[in-house]
Amino acid sequence: MTAQLRPLLAACPACVAAPHDGAEQAPTEARLALSLPGIHCQACIATVERELNAHPGIHSARVNLTLKRALIEADPDVRVADLIPVLEKAGFEAHELDLAALAATQNDKAGRDLLMRLAVAFFASMNVMLLSISVWSGASDATRDMFHWISAAITFPAIIFSAQPFFANAWTALRVGRLNMDVPIVLALVLALVTSLWETFLSGEHAYFDAALTLTFFLLAGRYLDYRTRAVARSAAEELAALEVPRAIRLLDGDEYEVPVADLAIGDLILVRPGGRMPVDGEIVSGQSELDRSLLTGETLPVFADPGLAVSAGEVNLTGPLTIRATAVGEDTSLHRMADLVAIAESGRSRYTSLADSAAKLYAPGVHILSALAFAGWYLYTFDIRTSLNIAAAVLIITCPCALGLAVPAVTTAASGRLFKKGMLIKHATALERLAEVDTVVFDKTGTLTAGTPQVTNLGDHARADLEIALALAEGSSHPLSVALSRAAREAGIKPASVQDITEVPGYGAEGLYRGSRVRLGRAAWVGAEQGSQTAAWLDTGAGEAKPFDYTDALRPGAAEAVAALKAAGKDVLLISGDTTGAVEDLAGRLNISKWVAEALPADKSARVQLLADQGKKVLMVGDGLNDTAALAAAHVSISPASALDAARVASDIVLLGQDLEPIAEACGVAQKATRRIRENFRIATLYNVIAVPLAIAGLATPLIAALAMSTSSITVSLNALRLR
Amino acid sequence: MSVLAYLIPISLILGSVGLAAFFYTVRSNQYDDPEGDARRILNDEWDDKPKP
After folding, report:
1. Binary contact (B4, A143; C-beta < 8 A)
2. Could you read off the pLDDT of A256-276 as tens digits, one per residue?
3. CA A457, CA A410: separation in Å to the nearest integer?
4. Nearest by CB: A120 against B8, B19, B43
C-alpha cells in the first residue's frame, strides 16, 4: 500500500488532501483477527498458517504466539465464520476478535517510547560510568578534565531525551501547585547537571554526571516495569472485550444483513436468534420466546416474551427467534445509561491516594527543605557559593527517590504476575493496595456465586415412566432448563421414551404425542399449573396433575471455598441479589452466609455499598451483571468474572479469567503481602538515606559514595520485591 | 596516554552502533512476538531459500 502511494505523493504533494484519491483507496483488503487460545508450539504455528494461507481469498496470515492470535489480511468478502471451521477441523479452537476493540494494543507507542528512553539512558550511563571509574581510580589534571568534558557531552543530550517523562510529570504537578515524586527528581537532575558542568569548567574534582544518568536509568526501569504490568492487563482485558464482536442481523425487505451494531438506527428491524443477545433497546414485533434477564436484574427466572414487550440491550433470547424494532441505539440504550452511573462513581474512587503518592507527599518537601538548609548552612559557614551549591546538589542526588521509584512497581509487577498465573487480571494500578485493606466482601448471586446453569433438584420424586417422557421432550429443545434436565436424566441412566412429533413452542415449552395422548413439558401456565416461587419446568403427561421439575442454580466452582476462606480471614461476607427471596435465602443457606438481601434494585445495591463505605468499611464487591455495575464502581475495590457484561468488567479493578472463584481469597492474601513488601521497601530506601545523608550534609559525599548508595538500595529493593513470587 | 584519543571514540562509536541496532529492532516490531519468534526457528519451511 505504501509503495503504491509514494510515487503519487512525490509527483503531486498538494493532491494528498484532494478528494480524488478516495477512489484509489477503496478497500481491496480486509484485516481480520482470530483468538487461538489452544496454540502452544512451533507445529501449531505452522499448521495454522498453512491452513489459513491455503484458504481462498487470504493474502497473508501470521500467528502471534505470545498473544495467541492470528492476524489475517484477506479479500473483503472473506468471512471469519468460514475460517473458524477450517481451523477447528485442524484441531484448533478459534474465536473471532473485534479488531476495533484491539486497536489500542496494536500500536504500543507509549511502551516503545519508554523502552527507547531506557536504552539511551543505559547506553549513556554505561559509557559515563566507564569514564567515572577512571576518574575515581586516580585520573588527574588534564585527563580528569577531559573525561569530565566527554561525560558532559554524553550526559546532556542523553538526559534531555531520556528524562522527558519526569520533566513532563513534574511540570504538570507544579502547574497546579502540587508536589509529586517527579519534582525532587527533576530538581536533583538539573542541579546535578548544572553544578557538575560548573565544576568541570573550573577543573573541579567531583562531577555527578554518572549519578544523574544512573538515577534516570533506574527510575525509567521502574516506570517501564509499571507500564508493562498494566499493558499486559490492559491487552488481556481488551481481548475479552474483542471476543464479543458487536454484530446484529438487520432485516430489510425480508432479507437478512449482518451489520455492526454501531450502524443500527432507531426504527430498524433486527432479528435476534435464540442464544443471541439484544444489541439495542427495542420492542418485540414478532416471535415468541423467553428472555434471560439475569445479567440486567439478577433474576434467574426467564421472562415470557411476546410482541409488544419492551426489551433492553444485554438481555439474552432463549428459545425462539425474535424480531425487534429498535427504540434506542448506541449511547441511549439502558446499557450505556448505566455506564454514566459508573463514571459518576469512578470519580469518587480517584480520591484514593496510593502509597507512592502519600510517600511522595512526605518525602518531596522533606528533601527540598533538607537540601535548602544544607545550602544555607554551608553558605553562612564558608560564604562560598560553589561549595554550598555542590553540597546541596549532593544532598539532592543522594536522597533522590531512586529506590522509592522502584519500590512500588517492582512489588506490583511481582504480585500481578503471580495473580495472573492464577487467572486474575489486575487492571487498576492501585487495585492491590486497595484490595489489601478490604474487610467486607459483597457478592452478587446470579452469574457470580452461581454459574448461571440450572440444576434439577427433584429428579428422584418422579416415576421412571414420567422421567422417560420428560427426557424425550427435553432433548427436543435447546432451552437451558431442558438441557439441564436431559443431562441430569441421562446421568441417572434414563432412556428417552418414544414420543412422536416433538415440536418446540417458543416461549412455552416442548410438546409431542406419546401413545396417542398429548404430552407437554414447559411453563406452568401452559400445562395448567400454578407458578411457584422457584424455577420449575412442568410435565403434563395427559394423565393426572402436571408435575414440576424444580431447579436451583449450580454453584460456581470454588464459590464455597472462597466464601469459607474469606470468612476464615476475618472478613464480613454479604450477599446482595436482585433475585427472589426464596432463591437468595436458599443460596445463602448453602454457602453459610448469614447476611443477605434479596430483590435489590441496581440503585439499592450501590446505595448499600455506599452505606457500608460510610460506616468506614472497605468493601470488595464481586459481581457480573449490569445491575451490579454501579455497586462495582462505588465499592472500594471490585472484581468481576470474565463472563460478566463488558460494562461490569470495565467498572471493576480485577477480572477473574477462569471459572473458579477460589483465587479471590488468595488474592486478598497476596495483596496484603504486597503492601507489606512495599512498606518494607520504603523503609529500606529510607535506611540508606539515613546513612548517606549525614555524609552528604557534612560535605564528605563523593560521586562514588552516591553511586554506591543508589545502586545498592535499588538492587535491595528489587530483590525484596522478588520474594513475593 | 595518546591511545585514549583512539580508544574513547571507538568505544563510543561501537556503543552507539549497538544503540542504533536496538532502535531499529524496536521500530521494526521485532519484540511483538518473542515467544513465537523463538519457536519459528524450529520450522523447516523456507530452510532452502528465504520467504519471498
Report:
1. yes
2. 887 877 778 888 888 888 777
3. 50
4. B19
